[in-house]
Amino acid sequence: MNVAHPLSFLRRPILPYLLLAISSPLLLSCSKPVPVTVARATKTTVESTISAVNAGTVTAERAAELSFGMVGIVAQMHVAIGDKVSQGQILAELENSELKTALDNARRDANRTRNLFARKVLAPTELEASVKALDIAEAAYEKSVIRAPFSGVITEENLEIGQLSQVTAPTTQALLRLVDLEKRYITADIDEVDLPHLTLGMKARVTILAVQREPFVGVIRKIVPFVSTKKEQDRTTLIELTIPTDGELLPVGASAEVEIVADQRAEALTIPTRTLLGRANDRYVFTLRDGKLSRTPVALGLQSYNRSEVISGLTEGVTVVFPPPDTDLKDGLVVSIQSEDTAWLS
Question: Residues 107-117: what's their mean pLDDT?
């Protein structure tokens, strides 16, 4: 039986092990630096913002879905989509020649009765009967026409001459849709958790791409004190905003992106929000010095999607690193600057 000598390992060649021990640090130090994008801590204006959970909507102060009050054949159309109309104007009529004749006769009879009553020729009951007949004739005629309940513009038309028009139920398609010519406002849904941070008069950026790419400056005019439960996991509060448009009527129904400015601070030390790591009270960034990373804790103030205020932990001009998608950052990691991002400042 052969037993290995306790010191037999000393007889083995040790050069490969020495070379490995010496070369390992050299290989690490010579590894290729990780390319990163950086930014510099900069003093600028920072905001705390609240965004609507869904796109808001351009809304008219008054809108109406109009229909006839009876079944009949459409005889006349007096308006088309886009026409401006005045309050009381007749917009469409059914075949109603008999109703018009009955109304004319009732008016003549009521006028004659009033004259006779004034001359004390007829009794009060006869006058009352005549006036009642006129009211019935007017009501019957009005069911055969569609009048504008207020001044506005026609935005929808689903009528054709000769078609049979039914009495429209509330859930069916409107025959005519009318919206007013008053200044528009914006409705939007805000997450219930943001409700305590909203107050009347807060300013907001409202982007309506159907009108222009540049945002309007809106102002909160109403906060509805009610939380909708239509979506169990997405409970929201409705708000309304006014926006200046220099007399231009915004298209009702257009979508509007709403971002409310809850707070703002000028000359604050800020960094890109995307450079932040950690959570809750343990937030940090990786700063860059002499080509190596350093994990640096920071305390934060106001925050928005683009930028965050740094209360402590950094000084102006310090370089911070955006975490690359394919590399975990750590202390001492050797990196090279691929580019410097300044878009977050715009």
Answer: 93
